[in-house]
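Supplementary Data S3. Sequence and structure tokens for construct A.
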Amino acid sequence: MPGLLRSFLDLLDADALEGLVTDDQVLDRTAVLVAVRNAADAELTRTVRKAENMQAPERDGTRSMRSWLRGHVRLSAREAARIVRNGRALEQFPAVAKAFAEGAVTAEQVAVIAPAAAVDVLAEAVGQGIDVSAVDELLAEVATTQEHAVLGTVVQHFLARLDPDGSEPDPTERRAVSISRHADGSVSGRFELDAVGGEKFCSVLESMVQADRPAGDLRTRSRQLGDALVQWADNTLAAGQLPILRTVKPHVIVTIPLADLVDLAALPGAGSTGFGAEISAARARMLACDGNVTRIVIGPEGQPLEAGRTKRVFPPHLRRAVDVRDHHCVFAGCSAPSHWCDVHHLVHWAHGGETDVDNAALLCERHHTKVHHGFRVERQPDGRWRTWRPDGTEILLGSALLA
């Protein structure tokens, strides 16, 4: 590692980033930086392992190095666990450890290799007459010469060969989902699925992506998958087959004062959802286009005085009529199927619009949002739909552009 650090410092002295003018200079600098980071990660991993062997955390009254790393240097629980696990693995695989220290292997690659270094795995390998040192050399070679994904395949192949006829693992043991809700009501998360569960998940999500490919779609692959996941939730909720939740079927609940629902100038955060997120009045109006509405009269001290009967904004017979007429999302260039769409009020019922077929349009979620934020759709006397942007220009497709 000292040699790498000297190269790094020499690079900084001789060629400050602002002074780099050729592609080779920038790429060489990038390669050196990655190697230095790998070498630094290797030294950190070795040091943490030594501290663990010495039970050094006890000096600060901490139970383990994982706890010390979380509390004293503010690493995440996941990263702290990875460093500790990598340190234990490197003791078993010296060739991998050497490549890591030289900057040729990343900490992420060591984490992929770590399951192969477990005590029970190595004991089984020795029992079957497998040369562990040869495995170590092979893993180091693959890690330094092959793409990242290949390394995982090699590790899994090694683990599978140790027990080809063993009991089938319980797939549910590897499934986990963690969800975090942020201050603005948005949600992020991560998940872990077994191979079969992951295949099912990807199959459903891909079907949603492939069925929603409007003309001129500029969304990234990540955004397409995100929209598909929400569409999956929409379809599942609409099917009405989910278990009962709090005595009623699961659905999206939004509470908003009537004055804010009607007021086009209402501030963000006018409405609140059942899980505590705050949403804008515009978003609430969009959800209210094609949902159930319950009027509740609140007294001066905040107590409910009267709860009106829940009514479906577009009853089933009107929904069917709009489905038959429009067939799919009517926004220019979109053909999302009707069962993915809401029925949109061209003039919102909160502003006096009628709930009838003439005041209705099928719109998928993405385009329903667009229409509630400046875009406009309009049905012509001949039955064709036209779409306008917020600046008043019309969105024209192929044949219309050539006309």
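Construct B, processed identically:
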Amino acid sequence: MPKIKEVKKKDGTTVYKAQVYLGMNPATGKPKYTTITGNAYKLVEDEVNKTIADRIDKKTVKNNNITFKQAYEEWFELHKKNVKPSTVETVESKMNAILPYLAHYKVRKITPAICQRMLNDMVESKRYKRSSAANYRMYCNMIFSYCIKNDYLAKNPMEYITVPKIADDFIYSDEDSQETRKYWLKSEVVEFLKIAEKELKFFDYVMFRMLLFTGIRKGELHALHWNDVNFATGELRIAKTLVNINKQDILQKPKSKASNRTIILDENTMDLLKRWKQIIREEYIVFGNRKLWDNNPPIFSEPSGKYFTLSHLNNVMNYNFYVHHPDFYKITIHQMRHTHASLLFESGASLKDVQAKLGHEEMQTTMNIYTHVTETKSKKTVDNFASFMEI
């Protein structure tokens, strides 16, 4: 709603004015406005509402025949200049699912019913999860909003669309009574590291120790170079993340400003890094890559200087560890970060401490993802309450 201003005229009388946006001028490409003036606030307010309604209901778009695919391509050319390469790849992946449904439609012909059928089909066919369908709705909204801004479209057909529920959402199963734990308990971490130290390659053991004792993201771990470690102070600098786009390794800035952080490593982890540095340094020299070593290579790399693949630790867990220990409680690599957060909370760390350690921009992110309490913490709470009551 445009702001209505009270204006005092030279003759002492009062009028009310508001400037209303009418759309883009197709000839100049600049925005058009009209000024509404009246002697009473209510009269101006009513006229503003009428003008806005007229524009929405009757406006003439400047390109009546643009298709959804064409609109997406226009929007994407602008969007990809303002996001990271990894985000560009994500958008392209999501749009590959959306375009078969909407690409050939003229945007002015896309109705809410068409959008709803698309989401219904995505969910009912089980090709996509309901959470993914919600993501596709978000991207469609972004493109339709771009169309409205550029006068290709009057109303957003995705505005009132909902991601449908499916029959399974309403049927109770035994799984509903069991909350899936997305982290390891302290005892499981201790056991895993003992097994990893005995059975896995040394550098894999060091990588898992780093994940579990720092809570850093997998991409942040792979992006570490030797100058990110200060062996004198025990500090580890997190300033970048590794992504792989079109089969090329690319170093990006961290996920957010808060992700750019320095954390302290415990002495045992520092000692392991020192041992690994000596081992990999000798391998670089044996392979004739002394100059490459002197040029600050990645911490976890081949003697050729090539980064370990981002799927490396996933493969170790899925095709090595879990194969030999099928009864061990299964979590993903990212859930090792969840594990670190859980153990931080259990050890008495505050929300603010955990937020800083994990590099979350917003406190709400920390609260949303890590508000679960470990089984140990829950038992302590019950025991403490019983002791307090003394009955």
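The mean pLDDT is 83. Residues 4 and 160 are 29 Å apart (CA to CA).
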